[in-house]
Amino acid sequence: MVLRKRYTPEQKVLILREHLKNKVPVSEVCKKYGINPNLFYRWEKQFFEGGIEIFKQTKKNNSKNTKELQLSAKITSLQEVISELTQENIVLKKKYNGEI
Fold it and tell me: Regarding predicted confidence, which is higher, 66 or 21?
């Protein structure tokens, strides 16, 4: 009975990095860690497909942050206008009530 070794996501990334970043041939990486090349390529596929999702989420987050900043600027601008109008209103009320 052969027991399969389970790799954590962190270990899988380190194994993939050894090939992708350090340019170690797949055959050597697989021999070193005792994994089948098909398994290595499956992890690689999952890694890159997951990367696409990460970039999609980043784009959504950046878009969301930009919209939030724009809304915040609009709110600040509107608050300033309301403040000015309120001050003018107070001055006019005092003027017409004979206080000025």
Answer: 21
Query: How many angstroms separate the CA atoms of 19 and 32, rounded?
Result: 12
Cα→Cα distances 10→14, 21, 33, 39, Å: 6, 15, 14, 16
Assessment of whether the complete model's pTM goes beyond 0.70? no
What is the DSSP-derived secondary structure letter of residue 97? T
CB 15 within 8 A of CB 35: yes
Q: Which amino acid is at 71?
A: L
Question: Measured between alpha carbons, how far is residue 71 from residues 28, 43, 59, 81, 94 in Å?
Answer: 54, 42, 18, 15, 35
Q: Which two tokens stand for residue 1?
A: 């009975």
Compute the distance between CA of residue 38 and CA of residue 45 in angstroms, rounded to an integer: 11
